[in-house]
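Holo prediction — coenzyme A.
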Amino acid sequence: MSRGLVLREARIEDARALLEWRNDPETRARSFTTAEVPGDEHMEWLRRVLSDPEITLYIAELDGVRVGTVRLERNRVPGGLCEISWTVAPGARGRGIGKKMVAGAVSGLSVAATARIRHGNTASERIARAAGFRLEGEDDDATYWRRPPESREDR
Ligand SMILES: CC(C)(COP(=O)(O)OP(=O)(O)OC[C@H]1O[C@@H](n2cnc3c(N)ncnc32)[C@H](O)[C@@H]1OP(=O)(O)O)[C@@H](O)C(=O)NCCC(=O)NCCS
């Protein structure tokens, strides 16, 4: 990770930033659910996520300012895989933050990971490749990516 960029676990105080990023028009256009999320629904979602031991929600901070988020959901897809998704704050995009924060979040992961990226999201495809994901397949909506688990010897 570059100097200044750190990942920490999300807290309830991050609710507002996460909602703003989620409802940003470009984020919605790149998501599989494009509707704007209402505040109360978001709070309910965040509380559930924070209390779920199978989910790790990271906030990336650059020099103490929130700049993005990465979510790791274990056992969400069959086969014990860990599903990864990410968003960079609208004002922080195009500066290499997505690439660094996703690589940092999956570094050392001892289980296989997957990611699903909507067609046309070239930046996210580059982020996935740089973080060790390989293209596995595609359908009409998306490409499917998989990252092998890291063994202890890889570290
Ligand atoms: C997609 C997103 C995560 C990219 O984050 P970012 O911090 O702007 O990306 P980076 O600056 O790390 O760039 C990653 C790579 O994509 C390239 N890139 C950045 N913006 C790009 C764009 N608009 N079009 C094409 N390539 C782009 C960069 O040059 C870099 O390429 P490199 O590997 O050759 O160096 C961010 O724009 C975002 O959050 N978008 C909305 C939500 C979203 O798409 N989430 C992901 C769903 S899978």
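READOUT: The beta strands are 5-9, 55-62, 65-77, 81-88, 113-118, 134-138, 142-147.
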